[in-house]
Amino acid sequence: AATAATDSPPSMTTATAAPTLPAPIVFSGKGPQAAGPFALDGLALFKFEHDGAGIYSVQLLDATGKMVAILFSGVGKAVVSAAQGAEAGMYVANVNADGKWTLIVERLAP
Fold it and tell me: Do residues 54 and 105 lie in contact, with contact meaning Cβ atoms separated by under 8 Å?
């Protein structure tokens, strides 16, 4: 014989969905190159991997070519990250490196 369930149904709550963030932008290359252009508006997380032995640096430039920030600077192999705020606009990352590199830009504002 079937028995009736005496438990109350599970309660439901509704949550506000978090805004969807833009997909990360991935650039890769070898040696000195410009990565971009790409759009920024607010805070972004930059991740850089360098597989060379020499000096590397990554500068963030605005649409006019003016340097906004030095994102990374060092020597040898590296896996580094940094957050940087930016006004709405188009940007380019100026990568100086002697080896293979990857730059990932994660925009943290929708």
Answer: no
Strands 78-96 and 33-51: antiparallel
Contact 52, 101 (CB under 8 A): yes
The position carrying tokens 């060092």 is 74
pLDDT tens, residue by residue, 1-37: 555 555 666 666 666 666 788 899 999 999 999 999 9
Task: Name the residue among 40, 28, 46 with its Cα closest to residue 82.
Answer: 46
Q: How many Cβ atoms sit within 10 Å of the Cβ of residue 108?
A: 13
Query: What's the angle, vertex CA 35, arms to CA 68 and CA 21, rounded to 5?
Result: 80
Q: Please give the DSSP secondary-structure letter assigned to residue 10.
A: P
Exposure on the CB side of residue 13, measured as CA atoms within 13 A:
2
* DSSP 8-state symbol, 6: -
Q: How far apart are CA 54 and CA 70, in angstroms?
A: 17
